[in-house]
Structure formats: structure tokens, C-alpha cells
Amino acid sequence: MDLIPNESDVRELLENTGALRQGHFTHPGGTHSDLYLQIPLAMRHYSESKVLSVALSRKLRQADAVRRAVPNVSVVVPATGGLPVAFGVAEALRASQTYWAEKNDGGDLELRQFVEVHPGERVILVDDILRTGRKLTQLRKLVEDAGAKVLALAVLVHQPFENCARFDDLPLFKLLTLEPHYWHEKQCPLCAKGTPAVDVRL
Q: Which residues of the chain have pLDDT under 50?
């Protein structure tokens, strides 16, 4: 496999680890889909997680601002679910630090206790999947309001939901784009065929 695998190779890796599945799935919001993706199922394997993390780090190095800044950058993730990717990317880039945000009682993102963003700090936002972009949008505002400079956004998989946030002014790096079909139950062709559904969590 190449140092930056193509999308077909990434998809095959995710399928082989069980992270990407085809079938009939129902999500917590009630929507139905023909694909299910759970990146931690791939990141639990050392060799596969290394391939994905190094590939994403090499994509990031294609950005001049990132290449000039490393290793003096921070890798920041909007939730603990993306930490395996963030730590892998940070190791490959030899980034100076990695930290993350959490939801507070009001449902807003805030940084982990005792973690501070410093004015002028250069930040790369990292996550496993970009679906709605809501958390990444909140995280970007959080670090920029503290005076940091966001250099890029990197995700393993771009799986945009309807009305996904846009980051047109920010370099976006990804290894794979997925476009599953989503339906409401009454319009689901898999339900019409009588295909058994599996309940899943995002």
C-alpha cells in the first residue's frame, strides 16, 4: 500500500476491519441507511491505525502552512472518540501537544479542565469522521476566540450529512469520501424489500 493510500485502498481497509459495513441500518434519529461506519473498529488494530494516521499526516504536510509550522503545532479534537486519530496524527507530525474538548452541562464544547489555548498557538483540527461538522465548527470558534490560529482540518472520512457545515476558507484533508443513501422509514426501499435492519449508534 502507498504511503498515501487511494480511496479504494482506504475503503478496503475499513471494510476488512469491520469499520465499514454494507446492509440496512437504522440510526438513533430514525433515519435508515445502506452503510454504517464506526472508525474505532479500525483504529483498534495497530497496523491499520498506523497506516491511516500516517497517511493523514502526509496529506496535512501538503499544506504549506502546516509544513512550515510542524512540529510547533497542536492537534485538537472535538470529542474523545476522535482521540485515536488525533494521537496517531500528532505522533506522525511530531506535534507539540494533543488535547480535546468535551460537552459541558449546557451542551456546549469546552476544553478539558486545566487545558488552555495560548494566543498565537497554531492548531490543526482533527477528527475521525466529518458528518455534520457542528462539533468541529464549535471547536474552531473555541480555539480562535482564545487567539489561536487554525491551520487546517483533517478527518479520516468525509461522510457529509444534509446541511453539513462548510469549511471553505480552511484546508480540508481526508482519506475517503462516503456518500451513503439515507431515508426516512416510510421511504426506505430496504424496508419495502423486507431487508432486516440493524440498530446502530453513530
A: none
CB 183 within 8 A of CB 24: no
- pLDDT value for 1: 57
d(Cα 185, Cα 166) in Å, to the nearest integer? 28
The answer to whether the beta carbons of residues 161 and 130 sit under 8 Å apart is: no
**Global pTM?**
0.92
Whole-number pLDDT of residue 4: 87
| DSSP-H helix ranges across 114-188 | 134-145
148 backbone dihedrals φ, ψ, rounded to 5°: -85, 160
Residues 161 and 151: their CA atoms lie apart, in Å, by 24
Strand partners, 32: 26, 183
Q: For the chain, list the domains and their CATH numbers.
A: 7-199 (3.40.50.2020)
